[in-house]
Amino acid sequence: MRSWWLRGAAGLAVASVLAGCFSNRQNEGEKLYATHCASCHGEQGEGLRRLIPPLAGADYLRQQRAALPCLIRKGQQGPILVNGVTFNQVMPGHDDLTDSQITNILNFVQQQWGNQNQTYTIREVSELLDACHGSDGQ
Amino acid sequence: MIRFALRRALGSLFIGLGSLTLLPACSSSSADQQTAQLPYIGEREVVPSPTGGPADTVYATIPTFHLTDQAGQPVTNATFKDKVYITDFFFATCPSICPKMQSELLRVYEKYKDNPRVVFLSHTIDPAHDSIPVLRDYAERLGVTDASRWHFATAPHDTVFALARAYMTGAQVDKEAPGGFTHTGAFALIDPNRHVRGIYDGLNKDEVDRLIKEIPVLLQEVSATSATATAKQP
């Protein structure tokens, strides 16, 4: 009896989380991109000359898909090759974003400006973040 | 933090604008061929004339400086003789506003890069990290190949921060801020007499458009005064 009730409650919780996932998430990704990423990568993901790599049309997004959650969480520095150009600056990490926010940003980036790359689920992002101890479980 | 500092910089701008509105009253007699003129920004002093005539207004000037640019060449006040220049403060590893700022300044540079009377000067506020090779790499990555058109300059820390104050683009060390510094992201437009003639929020496209429009106004004024300079020594 009791376990039935619990399962029901858990089911409801999952349902409401899922509803959240599929409602305005695209929108959230866009907003988060504007506040956390656009100052460097540009509003159109165009990057800045040879200083900041582009996100629009970047081969890196496809090739390094699994590494991107940790790249956002921990930042990136040292030489990095994007579309045949070597960049070498510092991207700061983002401790201020939850796993689900990182998911939404990445899904936005992977599908925006003509990009047509595979998206992520929150669970997948959390798992990928475990590799750099960067998951906050949220 | 950045916002706050910016507001302060804009505050001085309004003081500057205030002085502009006062000006015509003082100098109406010489206003014959007066076209649009940019304000003088910053502190000013009214100095009584020794002869008892009308008082002179003396505007704050940019102090004497000696910097080194990405080509290893000295950059001093004389570098900008008979030119107008646009200046800002940045650092190569700046995590917050610099990329946006530098891409806006790049937009201005693209418009004026073929005009040798308009020069650009970016100061690093992190001289410990931004050595000359780092500055050269940064400039080249931005697409600036001619150091004499856009100087990326370094100097001892105190010099740079004093200059930031003079240009009213306040930059300061702040351990709390991302990257360890705060600065306002302001651009300053300087005339050949070392006066600040415009302050623009480098993060705001409209403000940067205003800078693009005001540069020719200042150039015009400079041409006009150098034409009359032979007749009248200032």
Give the overall form of chain A.
globular
Total beta-strand segments of chain B: 11
Largest protein interface, residues of each chain: A-B, 13 and 18 residues
Q: What is the gyration radius of chain B calculated from CA atoms?
A: 18 Å
- Classified by CATH, the class of chain A is Mainly Alpha
Low-pLDDT segments of chain B: 1-33
Can you walk through the features of this model?
The complex is a heterodimer of chains A (138) and B (234). Chain A has 138 residues and is mainly α. Chain A contains 7 helices and 4 strands, in the order αααααββββαα. Chain A has one domain (2-130): Cytochrome c-like domain (Cytochrome Bc1 Complex, Chain D, domain 2, Orthogonal Bundle), CATH 1.10.760. Chain A has helices at residues 2-22, 25-36, 38-41, 59-63, 68-74, 99-111, 122-130; strands at residues 76-77, 80-82, 85-87, 90-91. In chain A, α2 packs across α6, α5 (68-74) packs across α6 (99-111) and α6 packs across α7. Chain B is α+β, with helices and mostly antiparallel strands. Chain B has a single domain (2-232), classed as Glutaredoxin. Chain B is 37% helix and 21% strand. Chain B has a 5-stranded mixed β-sheet, with helices on both faces. Chain B has a two-stranded antiparallel ribbon with strand order 1-2. Chain B has a two-stranded antiparallel sheet with strand order 3-4. In chain B, β6, α3 and β7 (150-153) form a beta-alpha-beta unit. Chain B is globular, with a radius of gyration of 18 Å. The N and C termini of chain B lie far apart (41 Å). The model of chain B is unreliable at 1-33 (pLDDT under 50).
